[in-house]
Amino acid sequence: MRDHTFAKELISFIDSSPSPFHVVHNLKNTLKDNGFIDLDPKSRWELKKNGRYFTVVNDSALIAFVIGEENVEEQGFKMIAAHTDSPGFKIKPFPDMRVKDYIKLNTESYGGPILYTWLDRPLSIAGRVLLRSQNPLNPTKKLIDFKEPIVIIPSLSIHMNRTVNEGVKFNKQKDTLPLLGRLSEEFGEKNRIFRLIAQNIDVKIEEILDFDLFLYTVEKGLITGMNKEFISSPKLDDLAMVHAGLEALIHAKPSSGINVLVCYDNEEIGSATKQGADSPMLSHVLERILLSLGKGREDYFRALSNSYMISADMAHALHPNYEEKQDPTHHPLINGGPVIKINADQKYATDADTSAVYQEICRKAGVPVQKFVNRSDELGGSTIGPISATQLGIRCIDVGNPMLSMHSVRELGGTLDHEYIIKSFEAFYCL
Questions:
Q1: Where are the alpha helices (DSSP H) in 20-142?
Q2: At what angle are helices 415-429 and 236-251 packed, to 10 degrees?
Q3: pLDDT in tens, 57-97
Q4: Alpha-carbon gap, residue 365 to 327, rounded angstroms
Q5: Rounded to an integer, what distance in angstroms lies between the CA atom of residue 359 and that of residue 45?
Q6: Which Pfam families match (predicted)?
Q7: Which of 55, 108, 331, 384 makes the best surface tag, with the fewest CB within 10 Å?
């Protein structure tokens, strides 16, 4: 029986990454442990060939890269792109709500979560807190993770909603607000969430300026299935691809060009942020790399023309209970290998050229490949692929591992698929 090392490492990575800020924190630590140098975007960069570097934007997005021996303008950038965020719930700035002696939190949905999957689950809170500092332009930032289950979204009893099993339409302002507890003297009448934050990170309430806090399920990921073939975990979309890209970047043999891993934030809400794919974040970093290596703007455009990006975001597997939802001739299966995602309207960046390249990479790596196309009468989603390709004007393909329950609080993927895609990413970086 397989030892599922990569799957176990993925589960551990996800379990320690309850918010995009924690994802980037964990990426930074792993990269530093493997010889990568942290670059301050405010400082002048002095880069060298064979160097390993990374830089962070907004504490929630990261770009890491390894510089090869050859001229980058001739060899280009080999890039893998993924995203650090997942659908869920974000806590509003003044969230305290009292109903009799119950205290609940005011939240809004982030992205497109499957709402009912969040009900009746033990939830916690994690994110970042901004604290007062000597410089108003640079507040102090601290990560926070309550870790313990401190909130829950209780469902309404079937006795009070007899038609619940016939389908429920949720009101996000009413039906999905988490219960924090009962009123107590310890936390008083107001600012309860601020008191909890202050207690958790050991600061005074007056020091707290603001926060970005998200709900998450405290139930850990695990390996399941008759043959231990499935990964059941929160946030597979898209932390599985972040983890795969990280593993490949660290362990791939030196490349002739420059290997890049870009982990954007905010894909789930359209990517239109300074740390999202629809921003100049990546183009600025790529140009700074060339400038630091003594190259000019003409060399930068030459490098882009020789570049290739893998947009890595999870894909839809055939659902055994809803076979009719899949395209008649394209049936990706869990543990059948990476999925190339295709759309005639270019909601995915894949075309025949970029598809052919990735298929050859997988063939040489001994990795099976599948293809996904939406039913012609179903409107699918999109990814960071078309956005990144538009921003940079580069060859790009959309791929991802097949999964079920996408955007549920707990998703289902394959143990073997995670090994497959890491292997394909390593082969790509080694070209």
A1: 20-33, 72-75
A2: 40
A3: 999 999 999 999 888 899 999 999 999 999 999 999 999 99
A4: 28
A5: 36
A6: Peptidase_M18
A7: 108
Cross-strand bridge partners of residue 367: none
Residue 143 CA to residue 297 CA, distance in Å, equals 38
What is d(CA 348, CA 244) in angstroms, rounded to the nearest whole number?
A: 20
DSSP 233: E
The CATH number of 88-217, from 3.20.20.70, 2.30.250.10, 1.25.40.10, 3.40.50.510, is 2.30.250.10
- Which DSSP string corresponds to 45-72? P---TT-EEEEEETTTEEEEEEE-SS-H
- DSSP E strands in 74-186: the ranges are 77-83, 88-99, 102-110, 123-131, 140-145, 179-182
Neighbours of 109 (CB within 10 A): 17
| CATH 3.40.630.10 placement within the chain | 5-86+234-429
Q: Is the pTM of this model over 0.90?
A: yes
Q: What's the Cα-to-Cα distance from 169 to each of 115, 166, 176, 267, 409, rounded to whole Å?
A: 10, 10, 11, 25, 18
Q: Which amino acid is at 196?
A: L
CATH 2.30.250.10, the chain: domain bounds: 88-217
Whether 351 shows a pLDDT value over 60: the answer reads yes
Question: How many C-beta neighbours within 10 Å does residue 155 have?
Answer: 14
Rg (CA), the chain: 22
| Inter-residue contact 132 to 207 (CB < 8 Å) | yes
